[in-house]
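Consider the tokenized backbone below.
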């Protein structure tokens, strides 16, 4: 923990996503922030834009945007189709999860939206 020692660790805040050097808000501050590598500036708020309609909040369980492509550029499979991959994520089993078309969703409480 250099140049700034602190108590924000994954052990103390296990659900805050404090991995690597990403901006986070483990203490409920006014926005996401990070410790800096500048010895004279302990921390700063990060320039993350406010969330509009098409963004993930928290683990994304409420996400209802229209992104249907993975982070690596693969097109998502439709939720109502069982090919090429069979799965149990159907609107019958997860009626409130917004399993529309091939849009990324989080029906099972994973750490983020997926397809």
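A designed sequence for it:
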């Amino acid at each position: 923990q250099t140049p700034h020692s602190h108590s924000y660790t994954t052990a103390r805040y296990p659900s805050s996503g404090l991995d690597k050097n990403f901006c986070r808000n483990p203490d409920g501050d006014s926005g996401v922030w990070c410790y800096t590598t500048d010895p004279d500036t302990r921390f700063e708020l990060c320039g993350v834009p406010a969330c509009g309609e098409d963004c993930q909040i928290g683990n994304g369980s409420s996400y209802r945007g229209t992104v249907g492509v993975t982070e690596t550029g693969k097109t998502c499979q439709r939720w109502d189709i069982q090919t090429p991959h069979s799965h149990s994520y159907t609107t019958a089993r997860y009626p409130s999860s917004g399993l529309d078309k091939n849009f990324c969703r989080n029906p099972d409480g994973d750490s983020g939206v997926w397809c």
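The beta strands are 33-35, 43-45.
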